[in-house]
């Protein structure tokens, strides 16, 4: 399986650290971390990224759904939502962006392995 360069967008530092640790132990690379849409867009414009893992709820005005729309319009790279959102309207909005996967928080190692294997294949 190819090593992926993964960018994480998560406004909770503990969750970001847990995701980063889990992904690194799986042999992939973390090429960046952001807490908000603006920071992520700034980085993603100049980085080589194979996958973005983003929360739906982020710091600031824009959400992970806004980031997904940006990725679809400008970058055309895979992205995955990981979120604890249970609001069906928001989940429907997120699914309309066509994510590669939707991982509920807390993200299980088994599900993460499965998603990363599908993207790296």
From TrEMBL:
Pfam families: Response_reg (PF00072). Residues 5-120 form the Response regulatory domain. Keywords: Phosphoprotein. SMART domains: REC. InterPro entries: Bact_response_regulator, CheY-like_superfamily, Sig_transdc_resp-reg_receiver. The modification 4-aspartylphosphate is found at residue 55. This is Response regulator. It comes from Mucilaginibacter rigui.
